[in-house]
Amino acid sequence: MPASCGRHARGRPGPLPAGSGFEREVRAREASAAPAARFPTPVACARPDMFPLDTDLGLARDSYYAATARRDRSWPALEGSASCDVAVVGGGLAGLSAALDLRRRGLDVVLLEGREVGFGASGRNGGQAIHGLACDQEVIERQLGHGAARQVWDMTIEALDLLRERIAEHGIACDWRDGYLGLAVGAGKGARLAAWADRTERLYGYPLERIAPAEVGRWIASPRFHSGVHDPRSGHLHPLKYALGLAQAAAAAGVRIHERTPVDALHQGEGVTLHAGTATVHARQALLAGNVYLHAGRAPLVPALAPRVMPVGTYLVCTRPLDAATHAALVPGGRAVCDTNFVLDYFRPTPDRRMLYGGRVSYSTATPRAMAAGLRARMVRTFPQLAAAEVEFAWGGFVDITMNRAPDFGRLPAPPGRTPAVYYLQGFSGHGLALTGLAGRLAAEAMTGDAGRFDVFARLRHRDFPGGAALRMPALVLGMAWYRLRDMLG
Ligand SMILES: Cc1cc2nc3c(=O)[nH]c(=O)nc-3n(C[C@H](O)[C@H](O)[C@H](O)COP(=O)(O)OP(=O)(O)OC[C@H]3O[C@@H](n4cnc5c(N)ncnc54)[C@H](O)[C@@H]3O)c2cc1C
Q: What is the pLDDT of residue 299?
């Protein structure tokens, strides 16, 4: 779920949590669905307790992306011990991007993924690559001043260019499409969006095409929106195809990838030692890029990092193919769209004539009741002409939010007398499709001695979520209720 601002073609996790609304829904749809809706055998994971976000396996099961991406390569689990210059934990876009860049800088890199590359948020997201961060620039300005805030903004735009470059350079067929619309519901939000666009152009030199109320109909066939902005430099793609393509590129460059290798312990001393069950990796440095999965389980891998991010569930549905005329008229030009609500809807037409529609959040990690039916209703509220459209896929995943929604990049403290050897990337707060790519590059720069740009982000201060392990989640749920109320008040 971009802040406004699929595992699995041939292997999917086991049964859904018993009795869940979501399960009933899926079973009902299974019963009515055409034979196309298939659920092959689950993928083994050496340590299932490693990822206790137990709703997550169910959420990954029925993804449009998993059904439409060819996962025609897998990598062996690590056995025995290995040594390398850099060990990367996490086979999502952050880890894969860093591994590729580190390898290109001549380092020997081992990447350890607990399940399969693209298993996490990187293979399930809304596919929208958008300028900026999940937080407002004012958050960065207040902490770092305007000069550094400008650097950060420019790096988020570089992230968009880097995405296009990698797609072209590695010939990744991932359905990239230019264009993004930020649309406001109601005059109040329209005015706030216009003020934001003015400020962004004035302070960051970033032009956005304005969509006046009278013009909205030209951009989208929906009665819901008052006005908006168009950014031709942002865009959208098929994230699992992109993640699998990036994994292939990293492997081709010489990165040693190991799937089904969940890291369960990390020791710093003479370099870094990582344990994954009975397997071991010795490395000079390590990068942790595990999203909220890194902190799930009875024993978070790095307890000090865990309270800085919280898992938030977000969900998507995708229709069966629509007739060509209806599909083409929904969002002429086929751009990605987000509304400007705090709990936003994000959606886009797909190249195979479907509507992919995201929204709804869960701060408790429990999957919302009737998740797919609720999202379908939001889609029909936006597009009444889709009242008869059938949902074929429904899935979701978890994003790693920070308290201030700014990304959290840094180094772990080193043992006495040693230099920091463990770097981490987290806290993309639902806005990481493009930024993970650049974050991987910044980590590679910093881990090879050029930390200037990485440290601009590393200087950002982050607070732990309040409440301690027991109360953190209920405190978050309570806190977020206010924002939902604000959305409703307009
Ligand atoms: C439903 C949804 C919609 C979204 N929509 C958008 C969008 O439209 N635009 C946007 O910009 N962002 C979006 N996001 C956010 C975006 O997907 C993420 O910010 C980004 O993919 C994070 O990448 P990552 O590499 O940090 O994490 P992930 O892709 O989650 O990868 C982390 C990997 O680390 C592995 N791992 C964790 N711990 C261990 C361990 N101990 N040992 C081994 N492996 C481990 C996990 O198995 C996982 O594969 C969305 C997210 C979700 C869930």
A: 78
Whether 399 lines ligand 1, by a CB cut-off of 6 Å, is yes
Q: Name which residue sits closest to atom 37 of ligand 1, judged by CA.
A: 290
Cβ 114 under 6 angstroms from ligand 1: yes
Q: How far is the CA of 247 from the centre of ligand 1 (A)?
A: 14
| Side chain identity at residue 127, one-letter code | G
Residues of the chain with pLDDT under 50: 1, 4-52
pTM of the predicted model, to two decimals? Answer: 0.91
Atom 15 of ligand 1, residue of closest alpha carbon? 430
Q: Quote the pLDDT of residue 35.
A: 38
| CA distance to 96, 301, 450, per residue, from 419 (Å) | 24, 20, 15
Residue 60 Cβ < 6 Å to ligand 1 = no
Q: Are 131 and 231 in contact (CB under 8 A)?
A: yes
> What distance in Å separates the CA atoms of residue 484 and residue 487, rounded to the nearest whole number?
5
2 CA distance to ligand 1 centroid (A)? 12
User: Is 301 a pocket residue for ligand 1 (Cβ < 6 Å)?
Assistant: yes
C-beta of 266 in contact with ligand 1 (< 6 A): no
User: Residue 54 has what pLDDT?
Assistant: 55
Closest CA to 396 of 372, 413, 415: 372
Calpha distance 165→472 (Å, rounded): 40
Q: How far apart are CA 411 and CA 399, in angstroms?
A: 21
Measured distance CA(270)–CA(272) in Å, rounded: 7
**Residue 243 Cα: closest atom of ligand 1:** 29
pLDDT at residue number 8: 43
Instruction: Give the per-residue pLDDT at 40.
Output: 35
Among protein residues, the one whose CA lies closest to atom 41 of ligand 1: 263
* Rounded Cα gap, residues 43 and 13, in angstroms: 6
128 burial type by CB count under 10 A (0-12 exposed, 13-18 middle, 19+ buried):
buried
467 contact partners, CB below 8 Å, separation of at least 6: 473, 474, 475, 476
Q: Is the CB of residue 90 below 6 angstroms from any atom belonging to ligand 1?
A: yes
The Cα 97–Cα 123 span in angstroms is: 14
Q: Is the CB of 263 under 6 A from ligand 1?
A: yes
Q: Rounded to an integer, what distance in angstroms lies between the CA atom of residue 269 and that of residue 266?
A: 10
